[in-house]
Amino acid sequence: MKRLLAAGFPRIFQICKCFRQAERGHRHLPEITLLEWYRTGSTYQDLMDECEALIMSVARRMGSSDILAYQGRRIKLAPPWPRIPVKDAFEKFASSPLAAAVQKDRFDEIMAVQIEPRLGRSQPVFLVDYPASRAALAKLKPEHPRYAERFELYIAGVEICNAFSELTDPVEQRARFEHERALRRKTGKPVYPMPERFLAALQDLPAAAGNAMGIDRLVMLFADAKQIDDVVAFTPEEL
Domains plus CATH for the chain? Predict the structure, then answer.
């Protein structure tokens, strides 16, 4: 899709199936449905506004108005929604400061166990400005380059989407990929080939932002379903 942006398409979207090996849980499936969209001349701030408008539109069409009833909770959907930096979320909810969690490779663990369940309980929340090391394809914040222009949306402790301002510098992107390849090689993991066509397209990519929203999880919320199994036609075990 980013190659299409580079080819001159200013606003694009698709609803498609995505596959993630060994993903399984009450909110995870190896096959998921995503709504993904990109827009040139925009930033992650613009996409937060679009998320608010999109979900409010769905709520009103579903008859939920400004309140979403989910698993015994009443969640206020009326925007604007809070935008909390990742650093602040770690200070408020985590057992470890952000820097220490990243250094000790505990970022994902602490996010999943200590932080995510507490987000969006009474109102949707945007978790913003991720550490640069957790945003391989995102643009860094010019005024704070340790952080990236990335956000995730949480409603009732459920991650709904992942978005960011796109990195458009092919030199910087190649350096990030090379760093990741070196880490994988050092730890004995498979080393993937360099995506040369993508890197070549970045030379023509204008300023843009993109978002990937989990349709299955959004359906979970509006159907008041406790687990993702309840909103898909077949679970992996049934195929």
Answer: 2-168+205-232 (3.30.930.10)
Which residues make Cβ contacts (< 8 Å) with residue 147, sequence separation at least 6? 85, 86, 87, 129, 130, 131, 132, 140, 141
pTM of the model: 0.94
CA gap 238, 213 in Å, rounded: 25
Structural tokens at position 164: 């960011």
List of residues 6+ apart from 10 with CB closer than 8 A: 39, 40, 41
pLDDT tens for each residue of 47-81 = 999 999 999 999 999 887 799 999 999 999 999 99
Among candidates 122, 198, 121, 127, which has minimal Cα distance to 166? Answer: 198
Give φ, ψ of 226 to 5 degrees.
-75, -35
The number of angstroms, rounded, from the C-alpha of 184 to the middle of its chain's C-alpha atoms is 23
Specify the pairing of strand 158-165 against strand 144-155.
antiparallel
Radius of gyration of the chain (CA): 18
- For 132, the 3-state DSSP assignment is helix
